[in-house]
Amino acid sequence: MYPSQQQVRPAGAFVAQGVVPAERGPSPKSALGVVTYSGQGPALWLSSCHGGAGASTLAALLPACGSAGRYWPVPVPQGRSRVLLVARGHASGLLAAQAAMRQWAARGLPSVQLLGLVVVADAPGKRPKPLTDLLQLITGGVPQVWDLPWVEGFRLGEPPNAVKLPSAYSRLIRDMAGAISAGPDN
Predict the structure, then answer these.
(1) Does 56 have pLDDT greater than 60?
(2) Are 85 and 50 in contact (CB under 8 A)?
């Protein structure tokens, strides 16, 4: 872009900046890359551990929230971002969540405050025991876990705000509203 074509942004405006592919991100490697931003971002970010995790649907339900895609949102030059990881409850989704949590636990993302993991059911009904065991194994170091049941309306393409939500969704919405009002690092 030529200097004469550059846009002037108001002070404090949100601006996405450099994107670092996962293979060059902090060790250990995971499916999540790093994206930096400046300015006022959302109060809460949702990071998808894999494609199809459900972060965009959840972002439509949670106030003051934005989807970071498959990236860790890192504010520059300073600041702290609050992040919820989102994964489906199938084996590959849980393993992707485990890799993302390992990446965070390696302390290579000091400006990211991980609030927890949201596991969205991948099918109606009870989770099979091997997947329940895997979920217990991988969530030992996570601050909090929200286990959300299947919602047929989402599958059918109904708008998130038009679906009757199970109580687990209401609990997540209430918990995140409380975390946002309490401020960072609480």
Answers:
(1) yes
(2) no
